[in-house]
DNA sequence: CCTCTTTATAGTCGCACTGACTATTAAGGG
DNA sequence: CCCTTAATAGTCAGTGCGACTATAAAGAGG
């Protein structure tokens, strides 16, 4: 079916949808926009928009990310294609195929509403339900994917600012996985993985509040985490 | 950019491309079709075609898979969405967005050419180069993905018939990864993973050639492989 | 028939990683 | 000045895995 005669295919509208994650108060949040138009007017949805004729889906996703968050550094934030949603009827008006992306932001800027979005807001992931279109499904898939990637990639640093403590890194894992981790073991694992994190050379130490000041680290060059850091199904850390 | 006014978007053609893998003579093969039309007439390409208006990409992929291989059991073979390729200019004539899939077949049937494909052929993966469009890239991505999934899923059984020996299963890993594995260790790992394989209850044994007959196993209910079966970078097994 | 080759299966040994846990250090708060 | 909090250091045992040896059961070839 590679023939391109004019009756061989129907045109589709192609959009991107973004699951933009960040950590606020040690909880995983996702960026949502309130829809201003029908369908689903007044409902919350993942930010997104149409892919323009001269764009790839990746380019469109970066553009939408910049528009929605107000970020100027479009090359910076981690952005990854997830999968494409193409069920007929997922948009009640027309045939829309949507390429979903996940983005990870460190310091979450206050969102500024996009051109036609009534408003944009960070919402705790667990409270984001009843979204427009099939965005509940997309968000769940995105969260699963990010959680799985934490296990065998060094992706967690994408949630952290340029310099961070091991405690902050651990809280990324705990927020995404919804578990608690043993601190000494987490520390041992991260430091034993070459290239995961690099100590900031100066005796730089950060004090955010109480307790012993923690050493600062930067993200290292490694991308994979071998052997992986598996989440063990367990209930809670015995205090 | 969720406004749907008529100037907000341009229509795209949406296609699916399939990387159909199987094992022939202990080597990973991929199904290719020879293009009969311009562009890239006479060149080899991944099978694929347009998504029809009433179809999802998954449905279209199953349809194309059945058309290209002549398989009637469309629910059977493992099929997984990989990612979407949307670079402008990837098709010289028009704006085409393609959703790529990987399919895994056990007993490889002889391919029958699709409607407009001059012919279809199983080609050893290592010899499949110079494909049409961006299919070299898609094929490489698909192979990487399948190789990675063998590490932490029970996907390998999708390459095997309903009943298989552990030696056959091991050859799947060796063909996809391009390595050799230690047989006793592989065996220990597979049997120690609950739900990966189940012994065929009868004293059923298969003799395909020389050597001691091997016990037969079926694919078990497990999908994940935890802890994973990591490929260790090494050169070759000391005979 | 006997031996060699081939493949499957059983088991051993030691190292590396990890989960669970204890101890010590260095800050801030009352 | 003590208590709390958080970071860091270290211990110990169990598990998983790489490397390796040994045995069993078939066919091939003389």
UniProtKB/TrEMBL annotation, chains A, B:
The UniProt record lists the keyword Transferase: no
Official protein name in the record: NUDIX hydrolase
Species this chain originates from: Streptomyces fumanus
Origin organism lineage: Bacteria, Bacillati, Actinomycetota, Actinomycetes, Kitasatosporales
InterPro entries: Nudix_hydrolase, NUDIX_hydrolase-like_dom_sf, NUDIX_hydrolase_CS, NUDIX_hydrolase_dom, WH-like_DNA-bd_sf, WH_DNA-bd_sf, WHD_NrtR
CDD domains associated with the record: NUDIX_NadM_like
Keywords: Hydrolase
Domain Nudix hydrolase residues, every copy: 11-145
Pfam family, one: WHD_NrtR
Domain of life per record: Bacteria
Similarity remark: Belongs to the Nudix hydrolase family.
GO terms of molecular function: hydrolase activity
